[in-house]
Structure prediction request, 355 residues.
Amino acid sequence: MFAFDQSSQTAFAQNKTSPLAGMNFSKSVDVWSKDGVLNTTLVAEYKIGKVDNQTTTAMVYNGSLLGPTFHVFPGDRVEVNLVNNLNESTNLHWHGLHVSPGNVSDNVLLDVPPGATQHYVLDIPKDHDPGTLWYHSHLHKLSYAQVSSGLSGMFIVEGLEKLLPKSLQNVTQHTFAMKDFPFDQLFAKTYKLSNTMTMHERLTVNGDVNPTINIKPGETQLWRLANIGPENELTVQLPGNMFYIIAEDGSPVWSVWKNDTLFMSSGKRYDVLVTANGSGPVELVSANNMFTAPYDRHIATINIEQGNQTNGTSASDILGIGLIPNRDLSNATIAEHRVLNFSSNDRDWIYYINR
Prediction:
C-alpha cells in the first residue's frame, strides 16, 4: 500500500493543461545493458494522451505510460539519471532488486526536488536470481498518487530461460505489465477528484488496452506477468489453459507448479509457461474477486492461430522440476524474534508499522 499526500493530486490537476505537455503517449522501449553496464536517463514529466480513446493526463517516464523496460544480467552495473520535470519531489525504488538500500542505490529516502537530477548506481550481485522485477516512485506520502498516475516500469534480470530444459530455452517471450489507469474509483470518490481530472479507468497492458498476442496451437511461450499498479488485485485466467509457474516475485521456483488462475495483488509478478490449447481468440481476463475495481476485466486477447499442432515441448513436461535448490528455512537458526503491529487510519489513507 502506498501513502498519499493530497498536495500531489492538486499539483497533478494543475498541470493538466500545461503547455509543455505532449498530446500522445509514446511506446515503451527496451533498454539493454551492454558490456556489463546499463547507462540511461529517466525523465519524469506530465503528459496528455489517449487511454482507450479518452484524453488523460499522466505522470510518465520518457513519455510512455509504461516506462522503459530495463534488461540486465547478474553482475551488471546500472547507472540511471532521474530527471525530475514534475512540480513536486519524486524518487525511485527498484522493487525486488537485491542491492544496497543506501547512498545512491535503492534508497527510498532520497528526495529529488523539482528541476533536479539524481544519479542512481545499482551494483547487481553476480549471484542475483533471474526473474521479473519493476521500478516505481517511492517518495513517502507521494508514492500512491505518482504510481497511480503512471510512474512505473519493468526491470528484468535475464537468464531465467537458461534454467529450463534446452527444448524450452528459445521460446517466444511476452511481458504483460498491467496497471489500472488513472485512479481507482474509491480513491477518486474519497478525494472528490471528479471535477479535476478524467476518471475513465481502464486496465492497461504495456500502456495499451486489450492488446493481441499471437500463439500457435500447442506452442509453448514464456509470459512475464506483473501487476505494477498501486492497489487493485487481479485474478488472471486464460479459459481452457493452464499456467505453469517457473518464477514468482523475481525468484525461480523450487518446483514448477501449475494453476488455472493466478491471484496478483499490487506488485505481484509471475513468470509462467503457457502451452496453447484450443483455437481462435481467447480472452486473458481478470476474474471477479472482492477487490476488483469496476474496470473492463479484459487483459489481452490471445489469438491461438489456425494451423497444425506444434510438436514442441509442452510446459506440462517440466511439472515438478526444480529450477533452483530448495531454500527451505524451517531448520535455520533463529537469530531474533520481532513483533510487528500493523494498523491504519483509513480516513486519511495512512498506514503504520509499530505506530
Summary: The chain is about 5% helix and 40% strand.
